[in-house]
Amino acid sequence: MDERLIAQTCFPSRYVQGPAALGMIPRIAKGFGGRALMITDPFVADKVLPTVQDKLQGADLVIEKFGGECTDDEIDRLVAIGKERQCESVIGFGGGKTLDTAKAVSAYMQVQIIIVPTLASTDAPCSARAVIYKPTGEVVRYLDLPKNPDVVLLDTELIVKAPVRFLISGIGDALSTWFEAESCMTKGAANSTCGAGHLHPGTMTAYALAKLCYETLCEYGTLAVMSAKAGACTPAFEKVVEANTLLSGLGFESGGLGAAHAIHNGLSELEECHKYMHGEKVAFGVLAGLFFADKSQEVIDKVYKLCEDVGLPTTLADLGVKEVTEEKLKIVAERTCVPEETIHNELRPGLPSQVIQAIKAADAEGRRRKGM
Ligand SMILES: [Zn+2]
């Protein structure tokens, strides 16, 4: 058996999205056996739950507030509660770390999991991966779960109320999906299913969905951001929430990652970039990746225009790097090109010198277009 010849694509079992979709939780939880352990953000517990009681009526819920960090101790604490109260499923309701904790708790309890994101800011909800942290905030390890979530459920009436910056960041993350999947497809590189060290490429389904993700953002991205600013849950908003969550999730996991996420990890080395969101840094990684991969003027214009229209960064200054020095570029480029990084899924060799050229060009193009 040669893993490189065996394609693999992973999906959540069920994806549910729409206004007032929370109302489906009682029925779904009942189908999983009855009582559910609901792990929520403190914000969700205090501000959201009291307003959605009617939608959750009839569900047998044990509600526990998440402690704030996805650590082994926090997971153990919640597993103990779930077992003691004889919960037959786990519901994660909130942001990324709450959802990762809920995924881990359900895996250890060996029960079904319902993931309920309150933001459309990243592509993590659909994946089989959870990131475990130390109580001090550093990453300890990636926990690769035996399966993707049983249900991912988004209530768009709720999501449209979140600050619009989260949706925009999600667009930045989703914008990387096709370019990275395309590189992996062309090179036959491994995707992100089943954790590090495996060699499976994706299936044609995964690449087709990654392409649909990009086309959806180009067509509806600007309309979705405008809708969200108006608090309007329009069809365009629905489409982009799906692109950010489902298409981007399937695309990164089963299509694979490339230059954009590697450059994101490089940018994260700079102190100035720390206050920016994942998708905002990924968006600049996409722009630099376009120069790195030698894309056409037409593609470059289209992607810059989308970033400008929705409000994603197009220059290093937009990411807080006011003074660009060779030293900073070198730090970013060297981290981008460490051996385990996904830039090596690109056709061209992932050399720090080439990454520096790409970042300089992307920044200059962003400034030129702004008339700077
Ligand atoms: Zn990402």
From TrEMBL:
Molecular-function annotations in GO: metal ion binding; oxidoreductase activity, acting on CH-OH group of donors
Keyword NAD: yes
Keyword terms of this UniProt record: Metal-binding, NAD, Oxidoreductase
One Gene Ontology cellular component: cytosol
Coiled-coil zones: none
Superkingdom, taxonomy of origin: Eukaryota
All copies of domain Alcohol dehydrogenase iron-type/glycerol dehydrogenase GldA, residue ranges: 12-156
CDD domains associated with the record: GlyDH
SUPFAM superfamilies xrefs: Dehydroquinate synthase-like
InterPro entries membership: ADH_Fe/GldA, ADH_Fe_CS, Glycerol_DH
PANTHER family for the chain: GLYCEROL DEHYDROGENASE, GLYCEROL DEHYDROGENASE 1
Family statement: Belongs to the iron-containing alcohol dehydrogenase family.
Protein name: Glycerol dehydrogenase
